[in-house]
Amino acid sequence: MQTSAWHCYSPDAHLEMNIIDELKKSLNLKPHPNEGGYFAETYRSTDWIITSNGERSIATAIYYLLTPDSFSALHKLTGDEIFHFYAGDPVEMLMLFPDGSGHTVVLGADVIGGMKPQHVVPGGVWQGSRLVQDGKYALLGATMSPGFAYDDYEHGNREELITQYPERAEIIRQLTIRK
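User: That's the sequence. What structure does it adopt?
Assistant: Structure tokens below.
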């Protein structure tokens, strides 16, 4: 699998941690309060619209960092979310659809090999992400329009999701936090 130039120049875990620390510092990334990983909001439109969920910013954008000790816990949003792959190792994204089906995509730089540098998760679809096995880090972006609002966020319940999607039980366990 193709990786970024940063990864190629980082032959050991110590250097990988330096990259992670530098990314956190340079991009002002903080722990995500709901789903895991690290993030920084980079844009929030000052224009607002009225949606079925109330008043929302027209658009928002974030940086999002995954590390070996983090994952994006299964959650769903009411609006579409567009993911952008920027750097690092590939990311597996699980999507669980309302009709009971599921699909996994890999975000990454190897487009010829089937990875996606950009992917849209439709509103109302459960989503969760993690680095591929032995991945060191991945820097992503996410854009939403209408913009993100915490009121539109629903955290996945492990037992309920396993009941609804039993064929995906193992990955659901890996992408949920037991509460």
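The helical segments are 5-8, 13-27, 158-164, 169-174.
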